[in-house]
Amino acid sequence: MVSQLISSTPPQHTRAVTLALRSVVKDNGLEAGEWVVACSGGPDSLALTFAVADLGGRLGAAVRAVIVDHGLRAESTAEAEQTRQVLARWRIAARVVTVNVRSEGGVEAAAREARYLALRENSGAGAVVFLGHTMDDQAESVLLGLGRGSGARSLSGMREVVREDAPSSRTWVRPLLGVRRWDTEGMCAELGLEPVQDPSNRLQGGWARADGGPLPRVAVRHRVIPALGEALGRDVVPLLARSAQLLDADASALEEWASRCWLPGEDLVVEDLAGLPLAVRSRVLKDAAERAGAVPLTQAHISALDKLVVGFEGGDPIDLPGGVKAWRERESGRNQPGSEGVQESRPGSAPSREPQAHGGADCKREGRVRRLIKIMKTS
């Protein structure tokens, strides 16, 4: 059992990392079971691995690191083995997993997809998986989302804790979103650790776009954030991270509201949807479309779905990803299945601005002629 890798009175940067980890574990009630750390060998993940191994050893958790070798650089295999040996010297269990990254699409997205798949395959049901993203990474995510014209959920960046439903029931944890990159680098220096320096994080010499320019995240890190800080005369990283936190609260509230307005399997009734605020209605439509298999959805798809609701005649049927179609049709009946639980907006009344309990009395009127949004997989 690994324990007390870190003294009870750690130096400055190590203290910042360990306190952040302890706080997240305690505040979220994370049990000391199977703890898996994604470790690339870079300063962020290396510092986190040592902090998790230390805390897990004290609490009785079974801690191990998963080192993913993407095979995208000639040096990656040697670097992964080097990282494993560093952890082994400190008696931290670690395993190197080699993955195949798809050649089509963006290399960053493909590498991320392969990495998360490897982490899932190397962690059991109920495991806690720790990821080493810092506040600096969060700030970059906010700006990247802004550059894509994204909504509140994307602009809220990465979530600190994400719990999967059964049967996997994993908990994904990013305990360092309140910690700066200089703290993880400083912790490695304080403990005498030599992290791997990934050239893909550099402006020059790393991965590049097809036109030869730097990858978006690298450009944001080395160009956009410094330029924004210089323009505003202050450190913008904590400001961007705070915006992400505020937007996360807003997006979560809207998602909760939307979940009360429609349950999977119920009809999507135009009259009910039309009375909802756009921010709530669009979330209901997105949820329904994704459950029908329409992934990935873009904002253009969601806007087209909304036109089916608010358009005078609903417009033509629309094609969605995954062989899914959506259209509007009329249906009449008394208390038809699925009509009981959807909120109703009375004609001529202002839509409610607060979430209400699912299945209000207004949703149970008999004998009405309903207009329905149908979203179905057709191929």
UniProtKB/TrEMBL annotation:
Signal peptide region: none
Any single GO CC term annotated in Swiss-Prot or TrEMBL for this entry: cytoplasm
Name of the protein this chain belongs to: tRNA(Ile)-lysidine synthase
Highest classification ranks of the organism: Bacteria, Bacillati, Actinomycetota, Actinomycetes, Actinomycetales
Gene3D superfamilies named among the record's database cross-references: HUPs
tRNA(Ile)-lysidine synthase substrate-binding domain location: 269-330
Functional note: Ligates lysine onto the cytidine present at position 34 of the AUA codon-specific tRNA(Ile) that contains the anticodon CAU, in an ATP-dependent manner. Cytidine is converted to lysidine, thus changing the amino acid specificity of the tRNA from methionine to isoleucine.
NCBIfam families assigned: lysidine_TilS_N (TIGR02432)
Catalysed transformations (reactions): cytidine(34) in tRNA(Ile2) + L-lysine + ATP = lysidine(34) in tRNA(Ile2) + AMP + diphosphate + H(+)
EC assignment: 6.3.4.19
Every tRNA(Ile)-lysidine/2-thiocytidine synthase N-terminal domain range: 35-202
GO molecular function annotation: ATP binding; tRNA(Ile)-lysidine synthase activity
Protein family (similarity comment): Belongs to the tRNA(Ile)-lysidine synthase family.
Binding, ATP: 40-45
Pfam families to which the protein is assigned, alphabetical: ATP_bind_3, TilS
UniProt free text on domains: The N-terminal region contains the highly conserved SGGXDS motif, predicted to be a P-loop motif involved in ATP binding.
Organism: Gleimia europaea ACS-120-V-Col10b
Subcellular location: Cytoplasm
Region described as Disordered: spans on this chain: 330-365
PANTHER family with a match to the protein in the record: TRNA(ILE)-LYSIDINE SYNTHASE-RELATED
Keywords in alphabetical order: ATP-binding, Cytoplasm, Ligase, Nucleotide-binding, tRNA processing
Keyword tRNA processing: yes
Any one of the GO BP annotations: tRNA modification
Superkingdom of this protein's organism: Bacteria
